[in-house]
Structure formats: structure tokens, C-alpha cells
Amino acid sequence: MPRIIISEPGKTPQPYRLKTDRIVTKIGRGSDNDILITTGSASTNHCKMKRVEGGFILVDNNSTNGIKHEDTQYSIIDLIDGITVQIGDDIDMEFTLSDEEKETLALEDFEPQQKASFPKSKQKKEAKPADDEEEDDVVLEEAKSSAKKSSSDDEKKPKKKLKTDSDKPVVSNRPVSTKSNSGLSFIIFMVLAILFFVGGLAARHYQDHKTFIFSK
């Protein structure tokens, strides 16, 4: 049976024995875990130990502080006899096999699955440019949408007619004709002349006959 020793800060190391045919062993702070960690930097469902062909592996459950071996963070760690891994930042897990267990596992074909992962802070930092690009794309799309809306509103507005030279009033520099004024003056002159002429005849007739020219 594989032997696991969990060393939490400020507590006595706790040994656990597991059956070789046990498929999954859950480890974390939550009460539903098979191996319960009550202190330190472990997450609620921090990681799980899995039985695979030819051995065991430790798989991180996207925990906050991850799993490490020799100060390197991994998403999967191959568990070999005598290895010590870190759960979180301050919890050690020692994994050992008996000689009989090692002989049994040696009969199976083991394929290494160990996989390193970047710390979450670094992952976020590297993911930031991608987020910025998405924000830029959104801003660009909003700008395009705003430009289209503005163009559409401009098309709906009545267009102002531009004034051209042909729309401006034509101012002529030619003098105003005085022909009409001359005709009116001539008519007035003729009327006055006739009145004077008739008046003169009436006065002459009165002197000669002592009667008005139109009297009976």
C-alpha cells in the first residue's frame, strides 16, 4: 500500500496508507476530501492523486497556490518512490512505495505525464495583452458603429442648398431710364397749357361781352 505523509505547518506529520488499486484520492481543506488539510495555504479542493497504468500521479485542481516539486510549479507531477512535493506554499507531501508495490507497478507500462505550469500571477500577466487586444477590438467596433450611426443621421437630415453665384441678385450698373418720367411731365405740361389757353379765352370773352363763355 502506498504511504503518504502530510506535514502541515505547526502540526505533527500525518501518515496515510492507500490501497494500490485505489483510483482517486482527493486532497484539500474541504470536508469531502479523502485527505483533509486544515492549515496552511491549501485550497478547498486543492489536488487529487490518481492511479494510472504503472504508477501514480498528482493532479492540481486549478488551486490558488498550486502544487510544486523542487520549487517548480506543475499541473501534473509523476509520483515516484521517495518523492516529496509541496501542496500550496507550506505543506509537504512525501510519497513512498514498498518493494512489493514497486515490483507490481514495474509489470505495467508507465507513461510520464508530468507537466509544468506557470504561476497564476504570471499567467494573468501574460494574458493581459490578449485582454487589451480584445478591449481595443471592442473600442474599434464601437467607433465604427458610432461612425455608421453618425453617417446615417447625416443622410436623414435635409441637406442645405449651397448658394451659387446664379442665386445671388443681379445688380445692374446701368442708369435707370427717365423715359417714363419725361412722358408724364409732357402730359402735365399739355394739360396746364390747355387750361391756360381756355382760361385766356374765357377772360377775353368776358371783357368783350360781359358774360361767361359758357353762359346762355
Fold and architecture overview:
The chain has a domain at 3-122: Tumour Suppressor Smad4 (Sandwich). It is 35% helix and 24% strand. It has helices spanning 99-106, 120-156, 179-209, and strands at residues 3-7, 14-17, 24-28, 35-36, 47-52, 55-60, 67-69, 72-79, 83-87, 91-96, 115-116. Strands 1, 2, 3, 4, 5, 6, 7, 8, 9, 10 and 11 form an eleven-stranded mixed sheet that branches. β5 and β6 form a beta hairpin. The termini are far apart. The model is unreliable at 122-134 (pLDDT under 50).
Fraction of residues in β-strands? 15-25%
Record field, number of beta strands? 11
Tell me about the largest β-sheet.
Answer: 11 strands, mixed
Average residue-wise pLDDT:
79
Total helical segments: 3
Low-confidence region ranges: 122-134
Helix content: 25-40%
Label the CATH architecture of the domain at 3-122.
Sandwich
The CATH topology of the domain at 3-122 = Tumour Suppressor Smad4
Give, in order, the helices and strands: EEEEEEEEEEHEHH
What features would you highlight for this structure?
216 residues, alpha+beta, Tumour Suppressor Smad4, 11-stranded mixed beta sheet, 3 helices, 35% helix, 24% strand
Q: How do you describe this structure in short?
A:
By secondary structure, the protein is α+β, with helices and mostly antiparallel strands. The chain has a domain at 3-122: Tumour Suppressor Smad4.
Furnish the topology, listing elements before pairings.
Elements: E1 3-7, E2 14-17, E3 24-28, E4 35-36, E5 47-52, E6 55-60, E7 67-69, E8 72-79, E9 83-87, E10 91-96, H1 99-106, E11 115-116, H2 120-156, H3 179-209
Parallel strand pairs: 3-4
Antiparallel strand pairs: 1-2, 1-10, 3-5, 5-6, 6-8, 7-8, 7-9, 8-11, 9-10
